[in-house]
Design brief:
It is globular and about 55 Å long. Helix content is about 45%, strand content about 15%. The strands form three sheets. Strands 4-3-5-6-7 form a five-stranded parallel beta sheet, with helices on both faces. Helix 8 links the parallel strand 6 and strand 7. The protein has 15 helices and twelve strands. It is an alpha/beta fold. The protein binds 5-amino-5-deoxy-1-O-phosphono-D-mannitol. 5-amino-5-deoxy-1-O-phosphono-D-mannitol binds next to helix 5. This is Glutamine--fructose-6-phosphate aminotransferase [isomerizing]. Catalyzes the first step in hexosamine metabolism, converting fructose-6P into glucosamine-6P using glutamine as a nitrogen source. It catalyses: D-fructose 6-phosphate + L-glutamine = D-glucosamine 6-phosphate + L-glutamate.
């Protein structure tokens, strides 16, 4: 049932070309220039008249939500707030019937996310679910929603569910933006054509980085700390990369927006600190170059995720992982793949139980 892979996690990482494709199936109709999503379309007035969208989630799903904020604000120009479900529910939040609350949950059973949704519903908000598990509790309580259709995710560390969540959020952002006129037709058409080709990009990344990342992982088996940095869309991708590593390898890892480095974490950098930096061409590249220079000057070990043909960051990096160039909004999907592999191989070399890491459960049904 692991399809010849040693672990479910690796199988699920390699399934992503297919799972992302499945998420888009029947929804993204490139030739017709249409995104079909009944859950959105049937309630389009709610989204159109929303004062703001609040995204609530936990863990990896919360990271997807942060990227959703970048997507929806950029393309649909609707204000978005992203909250940990656990914080939202306990702080007497201000919610009105003009709010749309979107819950993101792979399992659809996370207790905090469920409770936060109930609260939002009581206060009159329209509640929307992005779940992977069909007919789960969250899918049932919400007014409407979109399933991610990534297929069953067995590994406790979320991988294909995350990229499927990003795909749904991208579809929602483009659909709302097209509808409310913030995303012009020409841009819409070129973005959806690019989205349609993302499964192929993921396939390319898996093929071109798997062995390389496996080699890189060997050098970090005894490392005790890691930093992950990114900017813009790739700041949440950095958080997610760090979470993957800590969950399955038990190495302490922190994600930061690269510009925040100088406000504290830079004090940690010396020759023993590996820093994973996500630095695609589109996305504040020049700013990232100066961050990398600062790290280099302090002898940090740089593992750079860059676009093919990159020179500036690559010249300073100790390890270079190349991914194809995409529009900025798609780069977290593509960049996450080698980071999943990096966490996976480091954990395997450390002899950890990657599919069932200690202390963790696949769905957190307790508060
Ligand atoms: O099922 P959910 O998406 O609601 O789960 C949320 C988190 O518990 C989950 O993403 C957790 O952080 C994963 N172990 C991440 O790999």
């Amino acid at each position: 049932e692991k399809g010849g892979y040693e672990h479910f996690m690796l199988k699920e990482i390699f399934e992503q070309p297919k799972s992302v494709h499945d998420t888009m199936r029947g929804r993204l109709l490139v030739d017709e220039g249409v995104i079909k999503m009944a859950g959105i379309w049937d309630h389009i007035e709610k989204f159109k008249n929303a004062n703001r969208i609040i995204i609530i989630a936990c863990g990896t799903s919360w990271h997807a939500g942060l990227i959703g904020e970048y997507l929806i604000e950029e393309y649909a120009r609707i204000p978005v707030e992203v909250e940990y479900a656990s914080e939202f529910r306990y702080r007497n939040p201000i919610i009105t019937d003009k709010d749309v609350v979107i819950a993101i949950s792979q399992s659809g059973e996370t207790a905090d996310t469920m409770a936060a949704l109930k609260l939002a519903k009581e206060k009159g908000a329209f509640i929307y679910g992005i779940c992977n598990v069909v007919d789960s509790s969250i899918a049932r309580i919400t007014d409407a929603g979109s399933y991610t259709h990534a297929g069953p995710e067995i590994g406790v560390a979320s991988t294909k569910a995350f990229t499927a969540q990003l795909t749904i959020l991208t579809l929602i952002a483009f659909k709302l933006g097209k509808h409310n006129g913030n995303l012009g037709n020409a841009d819409f058409m070129s973005l959806i054509a690019e989205l349609d080709a993302i499964p192929k990009r993921i396939e390319d990344v898996l093929a071109s980085t798997n062995e390389l990342v496996q080699d890189i992982a060997k050098d970090f088996v005894s490392t005790t700390n890691f930093l992950y940095l990114g900017r813009g869309y790739n700041y949440p991708a950095a958080l997610e990369g760090a979470l993957k590593l800590k969950e399955i390898s038990y190495i302490h890892a922190e994600g930061y927006p690269a510009a925040e480095m100088k406000h504290g974490p830079i004090a940690l950098i010396d020759e023993n600190m590996p820093i994973v930096i996500i630095a695609p061409k589109k996305g504040h590249y020049d700013k990232i170059v100066s961050n990398v220079q600062e790290i280099k000057a302090r002898k940090g070990k740089i593992i750079a995720v860059v676009n093919k043909g990159d020179t500036q960051v690559s010249a300073m990096a100790d390890y270079v992982i190349e991914i194809p160039e995409t529009s900025e909004c798609f780069s977290p999907i593509v960049a996450s793949v080698p980071l999943q592999l990096l966490a996976y191989y480091i954990a395997v070399y450390r002899g950890a139980n990657v599919d069932q890491p200690r202390n963790l459960a696949k769905s957190v049904t307790v508060e």
